[in-house]
What we know:
single chain; alpha+beta; 4-stranded antiparallel β-sheet; 5 helices; 53% helix; 15% strand
Amino acid sequence: MKFNVGQIAINLKDEISPMGLGEGVRLTTKRENWFIPNQTIDETSEIITKNHKIVKNYFKGKNVKNITETDLDNFSLKIVLRYFQMYNQWRTTHKREMNRDLTFIHKDFEHPNTSDTIVDYFMSEYPDDFRVKCESILNMTSDQLREYLIRKEQFDNR
């Protein structure tokens, strides 16, 4: 199945994991390649579409400068996939989460994983001027971002 979220073409296909994760869905784009276990194509496309709209609209509502529509689509999808994979995993590893709604949880906009995903995206795409973009989208001053990057590096290298 093929569909678009924003400017991103997504392809989904049923797959049996060669690594023993069972049946699931393979999601691919020009930049992404994810196996999502215990998922169907229909639920995956529905959740990805819905959550991408939630995440993109949240950041679009911040009226940030110097962030293109393409960047907005790309980092929004990265955030969506990160949390979709996590929420979906909870369904299979915790009995009480078996019927978990996979809709993006608003409080996760404030979670460090969200900031990390954004920073990693801009560091990869714009190594020379990622700071300006990150300050804008994360609503941080230069000093706040510098401190954040120090803490992030310390955490990543522990």
